[in-house]
Amino acid sequence: xxxxxxxxxxxxxxxxxxxxxxxxxxxxxxxxxxxxxxxxxxxxxxxxxxxxxxxxxxxxxxxxxxxxxxxxxxxxxxxxxxxxxxxxxxxxxxxxxxxxxxxxxxxxxxxxxxxxxxxxxxxxxxxxxxxxxxxxxxxxxxxxxxxxxxxxxxxxxxxxxxxxxxxxxxxxxxxxxxxxxxxxxxxxxxxxxxxxxxxxxxxxxxxxxxxxxxxxxxxxxxxxxxxxxxxxxxxxxxxxxxxxxxxxxxxxxxxxxxxxxxxxxxxxxxxxxxxxxxxxxxxxxxxxxxxxxxxxx
Length: 297
Known about the structure:
By secondary structure, the protein is mostly helical.
């Protein structure tokens, strides 16, 4: 009996040793071959925005944490990144073309990505609206109509053209693109005062409000995650990008009842309003307006 008990415990000890060895092997296996989403950002990599490299020497040691924080937030907010991914081909190629034509850095395309997640119909509690999140006064300064009937901040083409003009003006005032981006968020006057009061001309040296302080790091992280998106997200999770569809413009003047005009032209009111979010009511005032509609031509 005693020998049987000793054998039992000996066999049990061998069993648990085997279990521990197997567990150890599995841990090593999954560490080497498991979920590889996300990346350990090595500071040997040059993280840059519009050609300006993020400084990484001892003076800017906190930049790593500021950047990592924004990357982590993008990873957490997977649902929004999926929307950005799907809408990319509907919006970004047009922005890239506009930037190139204006002689502006391609990285500025990430501004509407973080501002509106490439949605053309969003508004903020502060009063900003549209793809580029223009405030009303800035929009009017660059030629956009903003009133109770029409708000061209929601017009992708016209608001993008206005953004190009705004970037050019900001570039005349600020000699660094990181400052141009910060001014886009803060406002040129507010940023200029901060630069003067803090005796610097470097974004990374500035103490700013929380939103503007994060702004360039949000751009850096969005650029980095986008360029490495399949390392952060599974391709199956992201799904397919939306394909651009054919549209054409129909020039109109004053319209008292858009729904009735749509019906008479074999269009759906929903279609007209969806493709033209700049139309704020069911009517259009005097003037010449180009309405975007779907076509099968």
